[in-house]
Every structure is written in structure tokens, then in C-alpha cells.
Amino acid sequence: MSAGLLKENALQNTLLLDALQGRNHSRPPVWLMRQAGRYMPSYQKIKEKHSLLDMFQHEELITKITLLPVDELDIDAAILFSDILLPLQALGFDLFYGTQGPKLSPSEFSIDTLKCPSKEEMQSKFSFVSNSVRLLKKELKIPLLGFSGAPFTLASYLLDSDKHHILRNTKVMMYKDPAAFSKLLELMADIAILYLRIQVDAGVDAVQIFDSWAGVLDPFSYEQYCVKYLKKILKALPDVPVIVFSRGSCHYVKELISLSPTAISFDWQSSLTDLKKLVPEHIAIQGNLDPDFLQAEKNCIKQKVFSTLKEMENDKRYIFNLGHGLLPNTPYDNVKYLVDLVKSA
Amino acid sequence: MSAGLLKENALQNTLLLDALQGRNHSRPPVWLMRQAGRYMPSYQKIKEKHSLLDMFQHEELITKITLLPVDELDIDAAILFSDILLPLQALGFDLFYGTQGPKLSPSEFSIDTLKCPSKEEMQSKFSFVSNSVRLLKKELKIPLLGFSGAPFTLASYLLDSDKHHILRNTKVMMYKDPAAFSKLLELMADIAILYLRIQVDAGVDAVQIFDSWAGVLDPFSYEQYCVKYLKKILKALPDVPVIVFSRGSCHYVKELISLSPTAISFDWQSSLTDLKKLVPEHIAIQGNLDPDFLQAEKNCIKQKVFSTLKEMENDKRYIFNLGHGLLPNTPYDNVKYLVDLVKSA
Fold first, then answer.
1. Best mutation site among A169, A255, A269, A270 for testing chain B: the one with the most B CBs within 10 Å?
2. Alpha helices by DSSP H, chain B
3. Which bin fits B245, alpha (ψ -120 to 50), beta or left (φ > 0)?
């Protein structure tokens, strides 16, 4: 990757960007998916006064929440506080965050009536995103990540807003009407590109694409319905490092490598030792601790972190992270302990 | 595997047993997980009049339902109509089957108070199982399979009866108190052995162990909490062919091979072409069509079946099946069509 993609000038801590370039000679950088979240007492306090949707859509709240783990955990990268589904609002869907997870309204729609907004419409709709990025960039001495849901994952929430984890409608449509499903994915890719472009233009240092539900697919469908559209997004973002996160990533290593993203963020189904052998050196490796592991006793966490760091010793492209987002009931102390352990390595 | 394990005398169709021995020179045998289930109008008629628990516990209903796909689909193997959780009743848990999936009562318990029943207590509690097997064996000209949930999967339902798909309590206990979790798994293995022994002694031709929820584990935990106890079960059943089904099986190929079961039943995350190369010839391969694929149009199903059969052409240890159980809303016609396609190969 060209060093020109990376904006290191104002940063005091470039560990993440160094690792993304495969040239980190210090300890591995550490950040955690959903690092600004429900496990934090400070976050809970904000949440008592605001709805999740408010928190995702107001720049004062976005910046404040994004900075919580930066200030409290002294983490190596910040990630914009947002939600993977936000870009779907641009198609006229309303988002609700209830106790059963996110819901979209209307829940029924015709693909033919969905229309991709113009760049200008997107910018105007998501000005709170670009404003937040600009505010944060002034403040931060560590890299700032932007993100979006991946096309398959975005489509899955549109089709299976209810009982999402079963993905029944998504898979029925995928197998029954591949042409319509492909059309929907094409649109999802366009929306994701526009949404990521807003963040990149406002100044994020890298972006991550979350294909959080791609793990349910067979290799053929993964190629046809994930890889194809991830490729389109990567092609549209030649000017920023892109990390691809996919559940099932430990299965689809070959397919993810074929995308040649800046980094692949792995779930916990394979060992880093195995992944290190499979992933070519020009692609950085991020991951892959099971988020539930943070329920363990501190001595177990210590043992696990040390063995992980040993596994990845002297690996210049390794980024310490979880295999999925931090869970709500995670003990705050354990998260702090984990980050401190990696940082003192 | 010794040919002595297999009881072929009374059978007219030995395709499954031949494939389990790695010596099937005809078309591949076909049976489908949950082949007696909600997608069948004839099954729905029975279900209108009886609760699921009744259907699992009365020999007339068990035998009648077991025979539905034998008569209607002319399938190559029957599988006892039952549920993977039934053995948990032997520990004093009550089972309820509601619209949200199975629930166990009491939902809270102390592991120290759980006691493995004697062989005699098990036989008396599950006499409807042995009676059903004996009745079916008189009737059937194809092999009859017995089954049980695997230790990890059984434990997961005890610990996460509510919101089971998240497995939060299971994983918290696994990481926070490995000693207690191991103790629970030891008990689950003992119960599964006793339950499978009843079926084997009554005359089933093979058994399948379902580790339907093992796919959430990292390789280390899979080794420690699945492989170890599956090994114990296999050791206790030297006199019957054992098929091991595990979600995540495409990840844990190496670990499953180390068990050296008669067969491994794979989910759909890897291609059979890849699996064929990985699995040594003395282990049969079962799988691995995504059950949602049966929502596709007939021409797509035809194409898929033909390409699968081509992939496994002349493979003497291959058993056609799905990668998981048949789903409730599957079109009956498509299931019939699938079976006919494989049989006419």
C-alpha cells in the first residue's frame, strides 16, 4: 500500500496506521469493536438521558461518546460512534432501537421503488457525520476510523428486521430470486460507498466494513453475494485504508484475501497462528479474541493475552482486537485490564 | 471399521451402511436431518392433535412419524423421531416446546445437585424409546438411526434455555468457571452415553450425535469442551457406527478427524471438494446442502444436486444430506424433488 494513503501528520500515536502498512516495529496497536458501549458506566449515564437514535445522530453526543474509550482506556484508535445500519436511512427507512435489537420501518417494501440518493442528498442527510469527524479530528492524537455495514449485512436487516438472527427472508430471497437479491445488494453497495465517502472526505484515517452476518453463507454464495460487492466498495475507496470484518472470516480466508483489503478483521474460529500462515504479508491481520472471554477471571485473561502476543510476536501487521463487538454485560474492569496488558507488552 | 458392527441381514437397502463402511459402489444414499417434520402436511395433521412432547414420548406416535418420510419420500435411512434434548429429562428437568423453541424447567439449578441416573433408571424412563426402536426394526427394510444431543449442546440448553441462540450463560460459565463447566459436560456425556446405549441395545443400525451449537467456539474451547467429551462417547460405543454432526464442522475438520468417528456430517460452510481432500478415506462424509436452498426454484435445485453428485462421483463413503435440519417452511414438493433427483443419479 502507498504510504500516501495515510495521514500521519497530526497524530502522536501511529501504531494502527503503521500496522495497516505492515511496518509496525513496536507493540501491537489495540482497539476494540464497540469500545464505546454499554459496558461503560459513563456511556450508561449518557444513555439514561438519550435514545440510541439521538446518540447516533447528534454531533455533540457522537463526539462525546467516541472519546469515552479514548480518555478512559487510552486506546490506540478511535472509531466514530455510529451504527452499521445508519446508511439505510438514506433510502427512506426509519430506524428504531428497541430491546430486541434494531427494527426498520417500513418492514415491507418493493426493491424497484428504492432509489439511491445523490451525493449531495447524502451529504445533507448525514452532515452530522461529517461534522463529527471534523470535530474529532481536531481533538484526536490517535487515528480515527469510520465504518459502514457491508452490503449483505445491510440487506439482511432490510429483509429480516424481525427475528433477524434467523435470516429467513434473506436466504429465501437469495435462493429463490437471485436477480432481485443481486439488485438489492448493488444498491446496498452504492449506499455504503456514499456513506463511507462522507467519512473519508471529512477526514477519517481508515474505514472498517462490517459484514456481521455473512457467516451464514456457503462459499459459493459468499463469493456471489459478499465478495462481489465488497470488491465494488474497495474499488471506490482507493484513497483510504480499508479493514474488512466478516463473521465467518475464518472460513472465507481465501475469498477475503482475493479482495486484497488493507486488513482483514477475523472472528475467533481460527487461531492466529493458522491465519498468519494463510494471509499474505501485504494484508494486515486484526482480531480475534472471543468477546465472551472478557467474562473470565483476570489471571485467565492475562494468560490468553500473553499467549496471543507471543503468537504474533514481531508480526509487523498485527492489530489486537476482538473477534466481534464488546458485549453489554462485560465487566468494565476486565476491558481496562485487557487494554493495559496489550499496551504494556 | 469392522464389518461386524453393521447389521445388514434384514435390510433390503444397505446403501447407508455401505457408505459408512466406505464401500458403496452404487449411487449415494440420501436421508435428511429432520426428515420427519413440519414441512410435511401429514406431520402437521398429527401435530394438530398432539403436543410435541406427546409426539416424542409415545411409541405409537414415534413409530408413525418416523415412518412418514420412509413411506412418502422413499428415503434410504430412517431416523428415530425424537429430540436432542430428551436425555435431559433423566436429570429431572421438564421439557416444554413452545413457539420460541424448547425450554427447560427449572431454569436455575446447582450442578452439584445433578446426579446421573443408573442404567436401569434410564431404561425404565425411556422404555418408549427402546420399544419404538424394536417396533421400527420389525417394519423397516432400510437402516434405522438413533441419536442424541452432544454434551456441549445439551449443556447449552440447560444453561441458556431462554434466548438460547445467544448462549450467553453458557459462554460466561465456560470462561469464568472452567472446572464447573467441565463437570457439567462430563455429566452430559454420561447421560448421552446411557441414552444412546438404550437405542443401540434396542437395535438401531447407527447413531448420530448432534453438536448443533458447537459452532460458536474457538478452536481451543472446541478441543477442550467438545472433542474431549465426544471422544468419551465414541469410546463407550465401540459396537455401532457413529456419525458426528457439529455446526462449525467445516472449521473443526482437524479436530473431528482426530475423533475418528465412522462419519462426519458437515454444515455448508465448505465445499465437499475441499472436505474430500481433508478427510481420510476411512471416515465417511455426510452433508452438506444449506437447508434454505430448498426454497430455490426446481431448476436451481436440480443444477445444485447434479453439481454436488458430480463433485462426489465414485466416492464410496459419501452420504447425501443437508448441512442442518429441514426448516419448517420448506416446500414439501422441493424436498420430494431433491430426494428423487439423488435417487435417480
1. A269
2. 15-20, 41-49, 52-57, 59-73, 119-125, 127-139, 151-159, 168-176, 178-202, 219-222, 228-236, 253-259, 272-278, 298-311, 332-343
3. beta
Give tens-digit pLDDT for B127-152.
999 999 999 999 999 999 999 999 99
The three-state secondary structure class of A239 is coil
Give CA–CA dist B342/A27, Å, rounded: 55
Q: From CA B114, how far away is CA B243, in angstroms rounded?
A: 28
CA B29, CA B175: separation in Å to the nearest integer?
41
For residue A39, list chain B residues with Cβ-Cβ distance below 8 A: none
CB atoms within 10 A of CB B182: 15
| Closest chain A C-alpha to B136 CA, distance in angstroms | 34
Residue by residue, DSSP assigns A161-175 as: STTGGG-HHHHHHHH
User: Which one of A292, A294, A295 would you mutate to disrupt binding with B, by most B Cβ within 10 Å of its Cβ?
Assistant: A292
| Residue B224 per-residue DSSP state | I
Nearest partner of B218 among A229, A311, A255, A19, judged by Cα:
A311
DSSP string over B295-307: GS-HHHHHHHHHH
Question: Is the torsion defined by CA of B189, B194, B198, B200 positive or negative?
Answer: positive
**pLDDT at position A121, please?**
96
pLDDT at residue B248 in the model: 86
A-chain residues near B176 (CB < 8 A)? 295-297
Q: Which residues of B touch A219 (CB under 8 A)?
A: 269-271
Helices of type H across A32-148: 41-49, 52-57, 59-73, 119-125, 127-139
